[in-house]
Amino acid sequence: MLVLIVVILALIVVAVWATSRAQKLEAAKLAAMLPEEREKYLAQKRREEENARVASRERSDRWTYGDLNPVMVCPHCQTKGSIRTKSVERKKGISGGKATAAVLTGGISVLATGLSRKEELTQARCGNCKNIWAF
């Protein structure tokens, strides 16, 4: 356990040192540039960081809400092209077959399967008004 703590602390120290070193190198690089070059470099760096944030958000939204559906129109705000859809499974009511099996097995089957039935739906989310609905 002590060895693990020492290794973790060593990794933290190395990470802090590497970050500090990278910041010093970046500062030296900026100091050596002409003012116009510096502004152009910093603007490019800001664009790259913004593009990375947008790409990260796009991946996150695709994972959470599904792919964009370009022809679907939001029923709430009437926006077209900003709807994400994905297939979801929701519980709905009590399954008659499962209830019958529960009576016949003395309730043992309920432990394995539950009583509710599942229904396949499509969940949609509008990127404009952030409403979520299923159909």
H/E element sequence? HHEEHHEE
For the largest beta-sheet, the strand count, sense and barrel status come to:
4 strands, antiparallel
End-to-end separation: 53 Å
Quantity of strands, as a count = 4
Number of helices: 4
Q: What is the count of structural domains? A: 2
Uncertain regions spanning at least 5 consecutive residues: none
Please describe what this structure looks like.
The chain is of the alpha+beta class and 135 residues long. The chain has two domains: 2-65; 67-134, no CATH class. It has helices at 2-32, 35-65, 96-104, 108-113, and strands at 67-69, 83-94, 116-126, 132-134. The longest helix has 31 residues, at 2-32. The chain is flat. It starts with a helix and ends with a strand. 2% of the residues are buried.
Which helices and strands occur, and which strands form pairs?
Elements lengths: L1 H31 L2 H31 L1 E3 L13 E12 L1 H9 L3 H6 L2 E11 L5 E3 L1
Antiparallel strand pairs: 1-2, 2-3, 3-4
What is the structure about, briefly put?
This protein is an alpha+beta fold. The protein has helices at residues 2-32, 35-65, 96-104, 108-113, and strands spanning 67-69, 83-94, 116-126, 132-134.
